[in-house]
């Protein structure tokens, strides 16, 4: 359950006693609880005693960016940020309306129309508990190679999860990237959008959370929605009505998903390692 030190901090910060707490699933990285105060305010609290320095602060900044993107997507309000925990407003899950998935796609497309001069972000953050470098680049192929694939490949080789020979192959892959991805403006993306990081609320709107935000190629986001499933055909119809994807996207999905697959390889090992190497070999 919620550590006493975090309980004390919450009660001191809000000047109200905690009435109840209920442990809930917090994902593979963190622990979480639903916390209700005596004044009926309800929060989602997530914590990790071994959190990398700045992890929850970076998540809070990402949530603020998404919340200010001018969409109907429900993004949790950050109430309190600390080194080893994060307090968010509680959002109640609901079943969604008949057209909720379609509207989710539309609103995500609107979010992706938020742009910046360069790919990246003004600060680094995390994907899971792994560091995510967001050093800015004017060219997507460079950003993808240098800030996304290269750090993960090196991490995998150094830990023994990936074979050392993959370092030569991935260099060959980098030379082909410029001719593969269509030219687009940097898009504000959630960065870790799979079925476990969204839900439909009681209002019927989609809520998104647990981001790894940056300005990137929007095909990265849309490819990841297909990595583990959980997004309906209506979702993609709604998206393409507002911001159609370029032709050939289906052929680029696997390459886009190399990044999250490498992240999973470094976090969990197993078959993700061979899957990552197979993708690199197919382009190298």
Tag the structure with descriptive keywords.
284 residues, alpha+beta, Phosphorylase Kinase, domain 1, Aminoglycoside 3'-phosphotransferase, Chain: A, domain 2, two-stranded antiparallel sheet, 10 helices, kinase, Fructo-/Ketosamine-3-kinase, Kinase-like_dom_sf
Describe this structure in words.
- Belongs to the fructosamine kinase family.
- It comes from Gracilimonas mengyeensis.
- Keywords: Kinase, Transferase.
- InterPro entries: Fructo-/Ketosamine-3-kinase (IPR016477), Kinase-like_dom_sf (IPR011009).
- This protein is an alpha+beta fold.
- The chain folds into two domains: 4-89, Phosphorylase Kinase, domain 1; 100-283, Aminoglycoside phosphotransferase (APH), C-terminal lobe (Aminoglycoside 3'-phosphotransferase, Chain: A, domain 2, Alpha-Beta Complex), CATH 3.90.1200.
- The protein has helices spanning 4-14, 55-67, 100-112, 140-159, 166-174, 218-224, 233-242, 249-256, 258-268, 271-283, and strands at residues 18-24, 31-37, 42-47, 78-81, 85-89, 125-127, 130-132, 187-189, 198-200, 206-208, 214-216.
- The strands form four sheets. The chain has a five-stranded antiparallel sheet. It has a two-stranded antiparallel ribbon with strand order 6-7.
- A hairpin with a 5-residue loop joins β9 and β10 (206-208).
- It is globular.
- The model has no long low-confidence stretch (mean pLDDT 96).
